[in-house]
Amino acid sequence: MHGFPLALDPIAFSIGALKVHWYGLILGLGALTGLYLAIREGRRFGMPQEFFMDLLLLGVPSAIVGARIYFVAFKWEDYKNNLIDVFKIWNGGIAIYGALIGAIICAILYTRSKGYSFWRIADICAPSLLAGQMIGRWGNFVNQEAYGGPATETFLRDKLHLPDFIVDQMYINGAYHHPTFLYESLWSLVGIAVLFILRRQKFLRAGELFMSYFIWYSIGRFFIEALRTDSLGFNGSTGVASMLNTLWKPMEWMGFEQGSFDPNYGNIRTSQLLALLLVVAAVAIIIIRRVTGAAQARYLDPIVSSKQQPEGQEMASPAAPDRVPDRSAAQGEPSEQSGLAKTKDQEKTGTASPPDQPEEKR
Predict the structure, then answer these.
(1) Is 205 among the annotated ligand-binding positions?
(2) Nearest-CA neighbor of 260 among 186, 175, 183?
(3) Which of 67, 204, 225, 334 has the fewest CB atoms within 10 Å distance of its CB?
(4) Counting beta carbons within 10 angstroms of the beta carbon of residue 321, is it exposed (0 to 12), middle (13 to 18) or buried (19 or more)?
(5) What pTM value is reported for the model?
(6) Is 361 within a domain?
(7) DSSP string of 42-53?
């Protein structure tokens, strides 16, 4: 038994008055890991790595802004009298769905400006999103936030077999809690493997790997969200609330209990309902795109920008599309084509050119 477990210091190091938080470093590591995966996969399609680097530089700020706006909008009562706290993202308080909204808007604008199909680029980046979320959740671990309801130490150590440093960090306000950050991180790790397998299948169409990401992540988020004690929520239909609780029942059969959720704050967890809607929407988009013919391109098809020629290729002349430039003629050397032309002229006149070397006498 650990009577006095110690919480990790959220500050990694200081440079003068500047304090560098683990939260920011972990988010940065997640972003770089996602960038590496995107560049590596993009290389298979001949895409320059600068494209994904620029996308990251634009996408990360867009995601942070979107995540913070989403969170603050649902917590406005806590911020309206302390506007300066809106900008303190190092204290946590960003919403993943808001981050996705901001990043997607940025990606649509950026890919179109470069002449690429958004769906093709989104497919390449789908595993990167899961990788960023998988690593980023450990920032919540350091900050002791986004945790679940109370759990016994025996459940964490003996049933889940978690290492001491995780169990100790989950001792918050005098009680142990479910490490929901870990559940979501592991779910994302398995999801990356699933997407890696899917993207090698010939039946996969453009946009479907991106939709598969939403389906996988949202299923996990639906069940994990109800364990948390800090869910954003609202008052909605009792029928919808009852449906969500019924769908969550399998978790109770496995010994999990829902985290506390103040009924005065709401009866529906926003992220849980949104996760369910995203699963339905993603499946519908896949079906609609196939039925309407909008998903004719396959994942494994080449990716070409409509605004630039592929590197190393020249625009063929409309009048002579099959003509190949004679490089030897440009260098002042006799070419094979010119030699053939001379031979034909010599046949007509009955003359022949002397051989380069005299024939050997036998």
Answers:
(1) no
(2) 175
(3) 334
(4) exposed
(5) 0.79
(6) no
(7) HHHTT--HHHHH
Quote the number of domains for the chain: 1
- The gap from C-alpha 250 to its chain's centroid, in whole angstroms, comes to 29
Q: Which two tokens stand for residue 278?
A: 């995203």
Does 316 reside within a domain?
Answer: no
| Cβ(104)–Cβ(35) below 8 Å | no
How confident is the model over 123-134, as pLDDT tens digits?
999 999 999 999
User: Contact at 8 Å (CB) between 332 and 326?
Assistant: no
Separation CA 106–CA 108 (nearest Å): 6
pLDDT (tens digit per residue) in 279-301: 999 999 999 999 999 999 999 99
Q: Both tokens of residue 157? A: 């150590």
Range of the domain at 274: 11-292
Q: Which residues contact 165 (CB under 8 A, 6 or more apart)?
A: 8
Rg (CA), the chain: 30
Closest by CA position to 125, among listed 45, 184, 222: 45
CA–CA–CA angle 32, 37, 41 (5° rounding): 145
49 and 105 in contact (C-beta within 8 Å)?
no
User: Contact at 8 Å (CB) between 34 and 107?
Assistant: no
In-domain check, residue 333: no
DSSP state of 92: -
3-state DSSP assignment of residue 12: strand
